[in-house]
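Hey,
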Amino acid sequence: LDKFYQILRDYKVRCPADMVLLIKAMGTIEANYLKGPWVLGEAYSVADPYLYVVSSWLPRDGVDMSQFPKVSEHFARVGARPALLAPPPRRCVAPASAGPAGPPGC
């Protein structure tokens, strides 16, 4: 896991010229990780949503995801998780004057 995070830290995108580095990092992840459905194999971990976010940058920056089939499949798999599809929980910020229970409806 430490090596995975080091790869992503080493290839952090700061400007369009760094896209070459991000593509290289995705190639490394494609070749050395994703040996199962998730980054680290059979178990979903914190690395999965992180890779999901990082890989979401590729199409936006004009990178053809088809050159990374495992990363593309992983992106679709994480994107289909119920927790990601569900709307975020409603948050109610009550003014202090409403008391500990908050205003009606919270």
